[in-house]
Design a protein that fits this description.
The C terminus is likely disordered. It contains nine helices and no strands. α1 packs across α4, α4 runs parallel beside α7 and α5 runs antiparallel to α9. By secondary structure, it is mostly helical. It has a domain of 142 residues: Orthogonal Bundle (Tetracycline Repressor, domain 2). Pfam families: TetR_C_46 (PF21943), TetR_N (PF00440). One of its GO terms (biological process) is negative regulation of DNA-templated transcription.
Amino acid sequence: MPRAVREQQMLDAAVRIFGQRGFRAASMDEIAELAGVSKPLVYLYLHSKDDLFTACIRREAAALVEAVRNGVEAAAGESADRQLWSGLRAFFTHTAERPDGWAVLHSQARTQGEPFAAEVAAMREEVLAYVTALIAEAAREAHGDPSLPAREVAGLAQALVGAAESLAGWANTDTSVSAREAAATLMNFAWAGLGSLMEGRRWAAHVPG
């Protein structure tokens, strides 16, 4: 079997074990057994448990970013809200279909310290930049110019991405929640508010004095 194919089998097994058991509890013996290879072969190809975990993070992060980009691009030429809707559906579909991969990214890598957390942070920054551009484009569509301040756009992107991450974690614990329902929930929560901003309506706290 070609090395690249064998490595993917090892990564498939590792993502499943890391996602279900956690980085600390997972063993190379378990991963090798699930992959159908010897433990020395896992070490030969992927060197160490840390290196294997890093490879899993990078593969799952790249797959998630690609899924979101493909979702948005599938709605190219449509309005910004339709592009966001398509991207969110792609995100929730991906995380539902690959729950172990999402657990590796969202639960495991972030809690294991450096350098694992840095790998996830890099992926998140890429997604944030993409979502920020979508929101900025929505502002241009609404007003014909980028009327929202850059800082506000960045804050909205942070809020939207954070909400999506939290909602995916919840949806993956309840099999009755479909990817479409999760995306609709976030659109109802976030886009209605964004739509108000695009129309110049803002909520303002009224503080005495």
